[in-house]
Amino acid sequence: MNTSIIPKEAFEFLKKLDKNNNRNWFEGNKPEFKRWETAVKSFYQQVRENLEAHDDIEKMKMFRIYRDVRFSKDKTPYKTHFAGSFSRLGAHLRGGYYLRLKPGESFVATGFWEPNKEDLFRIRKEFEMDASDFRKVINHESLKSTWGELQGEGVKTAPKGFDKEHENIDLIKRKQFIFVRNFTDEEVLSDSFLTMVDDSFMAIRPFFNIMSDILTTNLNGESILD
């Protein structure tokens, strides 16, 4: 089996699972699921190997098909997508990559989903001082043509201790700093999808570089790492 493409049959299985999201059907079709899960895992491993040619990856995590329904109104037991993440190495390299495969709703995402309190404060202080370099990075043609606009949730008003009239308040109010790129089923199932994913991840590198610089230095630009 070609590990550099997503089998069409894997998507067909997910469509069937979406229509039969119950334990009896899944258990009866589990051998087929395991077959396509193995194929998809091989593809994710290829993504990791490509990433490691130009980035330092600490780990890859494939998410389980089983849903945690304890606190959800939706009690369907299975996810109808495959997903996995790739974490960058150590304290020096911040950020991570994510890939989800679902018929009609496939995408890659990258950035900072839930910065901890200390990191978020450090990022906001950077923007309070100067956000010009950051804006140049996120508005650069090569990044923007691939990923579009910076996304993520934010607070409704200025965070405590920050001026609501600050020129960079749009960035200071952010709680998340993420980019998302969607793909059609035709793109996902094509021979070039692996390359498209890797090209997307390479295009985000300037964003990771500047965020890593911010999070590993103080406001004087001095390293805070041992």
Short description:
Helices cover about 45% and strands about 15% of the residues. With about 230 residues, the chain is an alpha+beta fold. A 5-stranded antiparallel beta sheet has the order 1-2-3-4-5.
In DSSP terms, counting alpha (H) and pi (I) runs of 4 or more, how many helices?
A: 10
Let me know the number of strands.
5
Return residue spans where pLDDT drops below 50 for at least 5 consecutive residues: none
Spatial strand order of the main sheet: 1-2-3-4-5
N-to-C CA distance: 46 Å
Could you report the average pLDDT, rounded to the nearest whole number? 95
- Helical content class: 40-55%
State the major sheet.
Answer: 5 strands, antiparallel
Basic shape? globular
Beta strand %: 5-15%
Class inferred from helices and paired strands: alpha+beta
CA radius of gyration: 20 Å
Provide an overview of this structure.
The protein has helices at 8-19, 23-28, 30-52, 117-129, 132-138, 141-147, 169-172, 185-188, 193-203, 205-215, and strands at residues 57-62, 82-88, 96-101, 106-112, 177-183. It has 226 residues and is of the alpha+beta class. It starts with 7 loop residues before the first helix and ends in an 11-residue tail after the last helix. β3 (96-101) and β4 (106-112) form a beta hairpin.
